[in-house]
């Protein structure tokens, strides 16, 4: 957007005549917009018939690629140049006014009705969206195991706008370069085809290896916009396309079929995206011939035209409405309520169109001098960022009531281990009926997310990592007493790594060397799981685990502490298919864990199995407490669903039969019926899965007794 002078090609063809009026508006494309937005909204509302309604975004990409390229190439043919300032100015005038209103409104609503922790995340999303970079932020969060279970952002849908704008920073420049000698459709098509083929190859590969980057990344989505752009370059020839009417109907069928046949288990985008993209391409390509019996008979209906005109505004407003409604209502929404909310968002969409989009878009100031839109863009971006910054600067604390008993003092002041256990059990029992969050809560709910092991940074391998070498380079084999001759290995996933501070403290007291071998989402059990956000067998885990076992063999440790998150689904094979029925999952997982424990024992080490901590099952505890500071008992975990009793029994019985030590920390968290999320003044969980490091440290003497025994 910094280039204000148009780029002139060395040579250009004679100016082409203005396109006839019938080419200036395509009712079939307006109706196709309606199809796209209806699919997206229906999917987000949870209507069962279109579990794959997310393909509507792919349809939007094809439409956008076609229309923008059609305009750019005609300008290049008429004038031999592309006025970048005018081009980007028109894009800004078309898109930014409405999106800025939605951004600022959503941030204000999030700050009003969401918890402080969630509201702050929304503000950061708004800053990313204002800079057209939220797709990158979402891809990074999607590959971060510790963020994988976060509630979707009310601004998540801005990712598709970011992808489009990133493409339009690249494509006009590429188009000019490709047509440097003359405005050649062939050279532009070749350049576009190369871009599309490379992007599609990246899309297929990344879908299998890192789905968040394939879903949100411009590198894996550019081919969809390129498909529309190629049709634009062939538009003149397509006016004589034989069978055009059939092509348009086939395209509609392909789009609807993908929406009906696909669901959340589909590995998307990848090759699956070919069906909706091809469908949209057929509708647009066939429509170039304007067949009277084509799909325009459906797409040109008044309701479809009306929805098509509202499609951009409705897309912007429906998702924040759906995400914020449960917080405003104070409860989850049923399917029909969600549908009503989605439909109700048509009102702000219509108001936005009439009062914001059209008034700015058709303002003579910008119609006569499109480049003035650049100044508008700077102003609106500054407005969105400034408003977000203001919210970030507002107080973001949750006030508690009263002062709770200091949990650290209760445990540390106990002279005998038995006293410490009894005092903790008593404190858990008295904390269970707690209603008000105490003022001296540690850590505060607004800081809980970062209350994780700090000294072991770099020791928790990412989802995509396959080697232990990066962790060893970070010094993960030199914790505890690095000079000691006795070695303890902490081996497992993030539910193992969460114990680091307590285990490290024990190692220092006992003069043990501590080696940390942990990986996100990677169980030490000898079995495959489904990789988070990839919908395939977690092969990276198996590769990493084998390297970890080789290191354990080299270390010759005295003790290996294994722990793992409790998986509800059975183990899978390399193809991602369950190896046993779900009813047999507990036994299968216990056997898999014992196979790994036996490998440890065969190496001469003592395996110690740590049962999993009670699981909030994805419900963020800090968010819940922040939302209910005077009724925190609503956030407590029920033992019946949080501790997976049958899995614990299976693990314990299998370990006892093999003669392995088992540590079950359930009593350190729960009564017989409930697991309070605040014990004394200690906040127990930092998210919807992991225990705060502050609480783990308090359990050091209890853990030491179990390890030493």
Automatic annotation (TrEMBL):
Region ranges (Disordered)? 1-22
Q: Which terms are listed as keywords in the entry?
A: Acyltransferase, Membrane, Transferase, Transmembrane, Transmembrane helix
Recall the GO molecular function terms of this protein's record: acyltransferase activity, transferring groups other than amino-acyl groups
Q: Which domain of life is it from?
A: Bacteria
Which InterPro entries does this one have? Acyl_transf_3_dom, Acyltransferase_3, SGNH
Keyword Transmembrane helix among record annotations: yes
Q: Does the keyword Transcription regulation apply?
A: no
Q: Where is the Acyltransferase domain?
A: 28-350
Which part of the chain is the SGNH domain? 475-703
* Name used for this protein in its record: Acyltransferase
* Composition bias, Polar residues: 1-12
């Amino acid at each position: 957007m910094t280039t204000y002078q148009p780029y002139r090609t060395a040579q250009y063809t004679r100016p082409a005549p203005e396109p006839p009026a019938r080419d200036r508006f395509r009712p079939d494309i307006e109706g196709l917009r309606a199809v796209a937005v209806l699919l997206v909204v229906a999917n987000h509302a949870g209507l069962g018939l279109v579990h794959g309604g997310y393909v509507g975004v792919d349809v939007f990409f094809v439409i956008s690629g076609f229309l923008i390229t059609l305009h750019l190439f005609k300008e290049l043919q008429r004038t031999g140049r592309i006025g970048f300032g005018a081009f980007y100015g028109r894009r800004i005038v078309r898109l930014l006014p409405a999106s800025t209103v939605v951004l600022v409104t959503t941030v204000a609503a999030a700050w009003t009705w969401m918890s402080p922790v969630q509201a702050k995340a929304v503000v950061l999303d708004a800053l990313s969206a204002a800079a057209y970079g939220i797709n990158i932020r979402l891809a990074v969060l999607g590959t971060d195991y510790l963020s994988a279970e976060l509630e979707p952002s009310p601004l998540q849908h801005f990712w598709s706008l970011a992808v489009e704008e990133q493409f339009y920073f690249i494509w006009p420049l590429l188009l000019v370069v490709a047509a440097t000698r003359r405005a050649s459709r062939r050279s532009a098509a070749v350049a576009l085809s190369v871009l599309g083929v490379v992007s599609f190859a990246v899309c297929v590969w990344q879908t299998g290896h890192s789905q968040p980057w394939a879903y949100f990344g411009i590198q894996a989505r550019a081919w969809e916009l390129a498909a529309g752009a190629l049709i634009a370059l062939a538009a003149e020839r397509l006016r004589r396309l034989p069978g055009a009417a059939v092509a348009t109907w086939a395209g509609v069928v392909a789009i609807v079929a993908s929406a009906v046949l696909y669901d959340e288990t589909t590995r998307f985008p990848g090759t699956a995206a070919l069906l909706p993209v091809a469908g949209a391409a057929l509708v647009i390509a066939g429509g170039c011939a304007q067949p009277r019996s084509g799909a325009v008979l459906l797409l040109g209906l008044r309701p479809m035209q009306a929805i098509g005109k509202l499609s951009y505004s409705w897309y912007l407003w429906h998702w924040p409405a759906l995400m914020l409604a449960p917080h405003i209502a104070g409860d989850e929404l049923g399917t029909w309520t969600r549908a009503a909310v989605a439909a109700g968002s048509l009102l702000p969409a219509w108001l936005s169109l009439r009062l914001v989009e059209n008034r700015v878009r058709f303002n003579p100031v910008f119609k006569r001098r499109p480049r003035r839109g650049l100044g508008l863009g700077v102003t609106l971006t500054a407005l969105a960022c400034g408003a977000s910054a203001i919210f970030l600067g507002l107080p973001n604390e949750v006030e508690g009531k009263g002062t709770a008993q200091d949990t650290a003092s209760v445990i540390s002041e106990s002279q005998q281990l038995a006293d410490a256990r009894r005092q903790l059990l008593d404190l858990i029992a008295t904390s269970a009926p707690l209603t008000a969050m105490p003022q001296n809560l540690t850590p505060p709910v607004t800081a809980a997310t970062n209350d994780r092991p700090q000294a072991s940074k770099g020791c928790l391998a990412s989802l995509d990592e396959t080697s232990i070498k990066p962790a060893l380079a970070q010094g993960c084999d030199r914790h505890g007493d690095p000079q000691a001759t006795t070695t303890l290995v902490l081996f497992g996933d993030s539910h193992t790594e969460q114990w680091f501070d307590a285990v490290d403290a024990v190692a220092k007291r006992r003069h043990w060397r501590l080696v940390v071998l942990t990986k996100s989402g990677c169980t030490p059990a000898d079995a495959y799981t489904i990789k988070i956000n990839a919908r395939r067998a977690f092969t990276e885990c198996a590769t990493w685990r084998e390297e970890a076992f080789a290191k354990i063999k080299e270390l010759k440790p005295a003790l290996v502490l294994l722990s793992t998150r409790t998986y509800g689904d059975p183990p899978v094979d390399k193809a991602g298919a369950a190896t046993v029925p779900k009813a047999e999952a507990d036994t299968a997982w216990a056997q898999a864990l014992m196979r790994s424990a036996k490998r440890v024992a065969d190496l001469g080490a003592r395996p110690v199995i740590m049962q999993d901590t009670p699981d909030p099952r994805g419900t963020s505890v800090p968010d819940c407490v922040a939302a209910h500071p005077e009724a925190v008992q609503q956030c407590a975990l029920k033992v019946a669903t949080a501790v997976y009793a049958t899995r614990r029994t299976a693990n314990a019985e299998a370990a006892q039969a093999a003669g392995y030590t088992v540590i079950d920390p359930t009593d350190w968290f729960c009564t017989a019926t409930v697991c309070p999320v605040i014990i004394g003044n200690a906040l127990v969980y930092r998210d919807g899965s992991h225990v705060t490091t502050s609480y783990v440290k308090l359990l050091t003497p209890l853990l030491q007794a179990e390890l030493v025994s």
